[in-house]
Design a protein that fits this description.
alpha/beta; 11 strands; Pept_S49_ser-pept_pro
Amino acid sequence: MGFGIGDLFWIFLLLTSLQPLWQKRQIEYRRLRALQEFQQQRKSRVILLIHRQESISLLGIPLSRYITIEDSEQILRAIRLTPPDVPIDLILHTPGGLVLATEQIARALIRHQAKVTVFVPHYAMSGGTMLALASDEIVMDANAVLGPVDPQLGNFPAASIIKVVEDKPISEVDDQTLIMADLARKAIQQVQRFVRTLLKDSIPKQKVQPENIESIIEALTTGRVTHDYPITVEEATEMGLPITVGLPNSIYDLMDLYPQPQGGRPTVQYIPMPYNDRSPSLPVPKGRPLEEPNNL
């Protein structure tokens, strides 16, 4: 009994539909294997908190990912299952997220008795920075950044709401803005109190000097820069944060297993090999010099 064209079509359709599932299972297996190898190297509990900004969509519209209650539940469980004498390595790639979820994770980290190390391969903004402050050591790529942790009320920075009330005559400020300003003051005080708790926790381990605590709080929580301001390795070190530069290559390998979903043509391309004088070059057609591009 042979197969007809119709049978081949359905077989092709079945294989095509199963391919994404197979690829997903393969990458999940590679992630688990990479995690296991890194844990064995470090003799620690490794936890990943990675938020790709276009990892999900609704009707074709990208939705942002951020630290959620579900994240805090999973991380708290991982910390709870970690013996007190086993170090924790947290790999962070996140724009931030809910204050409640972030504070829950941070409190669990500072309560852990063994060393907590946070690795930042690219960025850990807002709530991600708060989690970094809960660690004993922050290990960053030379080009990675942290961010301010000043609270936001809706779409507005709390510090800016307060400034509006301070700059305008009280008679010209509506009741809703006054209420928002009151909430903004409380939000800033709460964040400052919590950041102070995180920084003081590391004093016995001599990671943050006591004289630097208030200046760090001032720089991170008062809204003197915009909420998306990138705090570089140099600036974070100058503040007095416990920064170490240089990530293990295995962390970059892990990040490769969490790629941005591809939509259309890729926006970045390069040949993945060491770039030096001995690297093989692409052939240049005779009679045509290799031209440098005019745009940056």
